[in-house]
Amino acid sequence: MNGLFVTVAGIDGAGKSTVVNTIQTEYKQSIVSKEPSELWTGDAVYRSITSDNTNPFTDFYLFMADRAHHIDNIIKPGLKDDMLVISDRFADSTRAYQFNALNNELPHGEEYTEQYIDDLMKHWNVQPDLTIYLDISVDTSIERCDGEDKYEDREFLEQVSQRYDYLQDKYSDRYVVVNGERNKDQVKQDVIDIIREHDSFGSLSE
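^ that's the sequence the OP posted. Answer follows.
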């Protein structure tokens, strides 16, 4: 596969959708997607995460089903066509959000939970070339969110934020952190500059 695969990560309310739309406007040779996807599998995920009655394992495996469909139908075809493929959330979201949900269910501690998730995801994964992490506080997240899904809870988001700190260190070769607390124009300009640095031949914006 060719092309450039960029994921945009951050806790709820970080401004991921705004940033992704900005990238698409700047880069005509781009495909924008998200997780949960807009495919039928993504609809099933939305139903699950907006319900308080689903088991964390149900949520996790629905995310995995959506991931497999998302990769096969959007990401791989886009990269094969030399496109810039941008995903609003991807595998790191699973490593942060589902990690904390499953860690309360699995009996053997954090290392086991991390390995459990990574072992399953390795069958349905594409390694991003670049991950842009929009860094905001949990206070800002709570202010911006509408409480629509089960994960928009202060204690849970604090755990997710800490997990993203861990992921930034673990995958430092592809992570770039952007201060998401600033005004939208500053954040969007930073993100465009970062993409330009990784588009070394300038071909994606043509």
